[in-house]
Design a protein that fits this description.
By secondary structure, the protein is mostly helical. It is 73% helix and 0% strand.
Length: 149
């Protein structure tokens, strides 16, 4: 029984490995096709006059920046929505704290753990930028392709 169990586990692992290998082969094939398309586009670009090459590069950069701006606008909207939600929660919690402190009138003032009007400071996380562009790691191949073409 133990030998059969181990045999079944080995077959399952072999099947999973073969499926994973097939998926990787398909991914490699797709990448090779994409690379060939990029090489053809690059060769066609090289055959163009320098002025047309510059214009083509500028058009691609404008397209990339437009897409990046749209992504940033979407992110900004999400952050603003989250900020409003957090401000509402903060007001609710501040009200609860004030109500709690008001109910603690039996405790002498010098022994109270909190001040009556509590101030909350929200600190922003400072970013240290080291370049002109910020991008996601998964967008790196696309960025490199656009820079080349």
């Amino acid at each position: 029984p133990v030998l059969r169990l181990l045999e079944a586990q080995l077959q399952d692992q072999r099947r999973e490995h073969e499926e994973e290998m097939e998926a990787l082969r398909n991914q490699v094939d797709l990448m090779q096709e994409e690379l060939e398309k990029q090489q053809q586009a690059f060769l066609q670009t090289l055959q163009l006059s320098p002025e047309v090459q510059v214009e083509f590069g500028l058009q691609q950069e404008i397209t990339r920046l437009t897409n990046e701006n749209l992504d940033l606008k979407e992110l900004l909207e999400k952050l603003e929505k989250n900020e409003k939600k957090l401000k509402k929660q903060l007001k609710i919690y501040m009200k609860k704290v004030q109500d709690f402190e008001a109910s603690q009138t039996t405790v002498p003032v010098e022994r109270r753990p909190h001040e009556r009007n509590m101030q909350v400071a929200v600190q922003r996380k400072e970013k240290d930028f080291q370049g002109m562009l910020e991008y996601y790691k998964e967008d790196e191949p696309l960025l490199i392709r656009n820079l080349i073409t």
